[in-house]
Amino acid sequence: MQPDSPPDIGLAPVTLPQAWQRDFAARDGSRYRLLISVPEGPAPARGFPSLVLVDGHALFPMAATAARLQAQRPEATGVGPAVVIGIGYPDERPFDAERRQRDLLPVPGGADRFLDAIIDEILPAVARIAPLDPARRALAGHSYGGLFVLHALFTRPGLFEAHVAGSPSIWWQDRAILASEVAFRRSGPASAGRLLITVGSHEQAPALAVTLQRAERLARARMRDNAAEMAERLSASGCVNCSFTEFPGENHVSVIPSMLSRAVAFALAGTAQDKAAAA
């Protein structure tokens, strides 16, 4: 058995700069653990831009680090200081299978309930720690989280200015999300903001040897093709400013760091002007 902690040879826990966590109970009794990164220095007059991440324990450390690094070179990145919010669960697992299915899937009492909690409860709680600009908030997620992002955009356009759907599970329930997409495109909202859809090139056709059963499942899921086709339809519709990025050589797990780096650059594009204006 491995020891619970390493030998006492002068090691100390590693922490993320400018990052904190707090437990949070929603009004419906659901418990979350919020991971929050707040920039140093005063907030812009309108409040900080914000990036909200579901599956917080999996995505927050990389996204917070990427946001901090990119904000240090605004002349190169165009990214300024922003509040990064990871919504995780008390057990701290990177992906809590049971909770994420309950929160992220568009089923009765699922994604819409969670979206209400984010907008009406979680973001106001974070705003008491650091002022947030409601006109410059972004939502990002991976896999089921990417599906959640699409659901939020299609059913409540305007809640977020930027949306990042990483490897979205469009295949779920025989591509049920397409009905929401069609309704969204027909409604033609004028203020749907921006959307980035990303996927790894090996999510559909793996480079590693896999079992026949897994190969068939990946082929049915059509992760790459579903994402690319949806991005093409949305771009043509004019309903949302949609971009698509395919990361070469990445699978459904290895793509996460690349997606998060691009998500920060996309979601926080142009925010460096806040820092320039305050200088």
UniProtKB/TrEMBL annotation:
<protein>
    <recommendedName>
        <fullName>Esterase</fullName>
    </recommendedName>
</protein>
<dbReference type="InterPro" id="IPR029058">
    <property type="entry name" value="AB_hydrolase_fold"/>
</dbReference>
<comment type="similarity">
    <text>Belongs to the esterase D family.</text>
</comment>
<dbReference type="Pfam" id="PF00756">
    <property type="entry name" value="Esterase"/>
</dbReference>
<dbReference type="InterPro" id="IPR052558">
    <property type="entry name" value="Siderophore_Hydrolase_D"/>
</dbReference>
<keyword id="KW-0378">Hydrolase</keyword>
<dbReference type="InterPro" id="IPR000801">
    <property type="entry name" value="Esterase-like"/>
</dbReference>
